[in-house]
């Protein structure tokens, strides 16, 4: 009885260890873990680095979003050598919503939809040549994106 | 999970605009069900798009991306007949993929 219990525990242990190995799809683009986990706006930039304001980033967001759970965001960068685009929602529980890596051969453009917890500016942060640039736009949210 | 992404790739000049719609709950882990229990987080963490053997876009996502995520991007130097493949991986280790031909 004891032995089988032990071997079960051993098996279970192995299973847990296996499930803890992170699966990976992207080999060459490391997840900005710290910035993703940051719980406030400044924390994101503390981790990514400081970004200077730029008017070469076109950020398209609605002025008023009726449903904060689905807010369309489009980012176009005309900064040469744009390699990464981040979407940051200032007052979300985790402000960094998404990080994109744009390889050479793709346009510096992404469009997606994000959740916005409450009325606040949404920022597009662009990395080009190792430097960070940002542009922000206020979006009014009538219904928060956290639901329930 | 085949068929979990709907993709369309349209060619304008030599730029292909890819639009992908993924079917996924994108649960943040901060919502509660009617009984007041927390609904566990379940969201896509990584997305990769390839055309042929070339990577055309990579992304790391947090839970703030909307349910049934929509993603659009543009590939330069594309031509009709190219295939575009999009794959995702979520925090539970599930994956999804979809493929389309540039038209």
Key structural traits:
heterodimer; A: 148 residues; Immunoglobulin-like; 6-stranded mixed β-sheet; B: 103 residues; mainly beta; 0% helix
CATH superfamily of chain A: SoxY domain
- Name the helix and strand elements of chain A from N-terminus to C-terminus, one letter apiece: HHHEEEEEEEEE
Uncertain segments of chain B: none
Which descriptor suits the 3D outline of chain B? elongated
Oligomer: heterodimer
Using the alpha-carbon principal axes, give the shape of chain A. globular
- The DSSP helix count of chain A reads 3
Spatial order of the strands in the main sheet of chain B?
4-3-6-7
Counted beta strands of chain B? 7
Describe this structure in words.
- The complex is a heterodimer of chains A (148) and B (103).
- Chain A is of the alpha+beta class.
- In chain A, 22% of the residues lie in helices and 40% in strands.
- Chain A has one domain (31-141): Sandwich (Immunoglobulin-like), CATH 2.60.40.2470.
- Chain A has helices spanning 2-20, 33-37, 41-48; strands spanning 51-53, 57-60, 64-65, 71-77, 82-89, 96-101, 106-114, 120-128, 131-141.
- In chain A, strands 1, 3, 5, 6, 8 and 9 form a 6-stranded mixed beta sheet that branches. In chain A, strands 2-4-7 form a 3-stranded antiparallel beta sheet, with no helix packed on it.
- The radius of gyration of chain A is 20 Å and the shape is globular.
- Chain B is 0% helix and 51% strand.
- Chain B has one domain (5-30, 38-101): Immunoglobulin-like, CATH 2.60.40.
- The model of chain B has no long low-confidence stretch (mean pLDDT 93).
- At the A-B interface, strand 4, strand 6 and strand 7 of A face strand 3, strand 4, strand 5 and strand 6 of B.
- Strand 7 (106-114) of chain A pairs antiparallel with strand 5 (70-75) of chain B, so a sheet runs across the interface.
Layout of secondary structure:
The complex is a heterodimer of chains A (148) and B (103).
Chain A lengths: L1 H19 L12 H5 L3 H8 L2 E3 L3 E4 L3 E2 L5 E7 L4 E8 L6 E6 L4 E9 L5 E9 L2 E11 L7
Parallel strand pairs in A: 1-9, 3-9
Antiparallel strand pairs in A: 2-4, 4-7, 5-6, 5-8, 8-9
Chain B lengths: L4 E8 L2 E8 L21 E8 L2 E8 L8 E6 L7 E8 L4 E7 L2
Antiparallel strand pairs in B: 1-2, 2-5, 3-4, 3-6, 6-7
């Amino acid at each position: 009885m004891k032995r089988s219990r032990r071997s079960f525990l051993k098996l279970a242990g192995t299973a847990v260890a296996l499930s803890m190995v992170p699966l990976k799809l992207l080999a060459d683009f490391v997840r900005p873990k710290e910035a993703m986990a940051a719980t406030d706006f400044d924390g994101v930039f503390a981790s990514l680095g400081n970004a200077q304001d730029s008017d070469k980033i076109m950020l398209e967001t609605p002025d008023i979003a009726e449903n904060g759970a689905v807010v369309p965001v489009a980012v176009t960068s005309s900064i040469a050598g744009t390699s990464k685009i981040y979407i940051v929602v200032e007052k979300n529980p985790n402000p960094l919503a998404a990080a994109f890596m744009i390889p050479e051969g793709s346009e510096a453009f992404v469009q997606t939809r994000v959740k916005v917890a409450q009325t606040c500016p949404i920022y597009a942060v662009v990395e080009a040549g190792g430097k960070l640039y940002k542009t922000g736009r206020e979006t009014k949210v009538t219904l928060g994106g956290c639901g329930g | 999970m085949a068929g979990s992404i709907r993709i369309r790739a349209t060619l304008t000049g030599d730029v292909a605009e890819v639009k992908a719609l993924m079917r996924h709950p994108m649960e943040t882990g901060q919502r509660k069900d009617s009984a007041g229990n927390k609904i566990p987080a379940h969201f896509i963490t990584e997305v990769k798009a390839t055309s042929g053997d070339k990577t055309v876009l990579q992304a790391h996502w947090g839970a703030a991306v909307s349910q049934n995520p929509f993603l659009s991007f543009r590939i330069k130097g594309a031509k009709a007949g190219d295939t575009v493949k999009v794959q995702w991986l979520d925090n539970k280790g599930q994956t999804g993929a979809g493929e389309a031909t540039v038209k």
